[in-house]
Amino acid sequence: MKRTLIGLLAAWALVQVRAAELEWLTDLPQAQAKAKTEKKMVLLDFTGSDWCPPCKALHKNVLTSKEFAEYAKENLVLVEVDFPRSKPQSDAQKKANKALANQFSVRGYPTVVVLDGNGKVLSSKTGYGGEDAASFVARLKGLKG
Question: What domains can you pick out in the chain, each with its CATH number?
Answer without folding.
Answer: 2-143 (3.40.30.10)
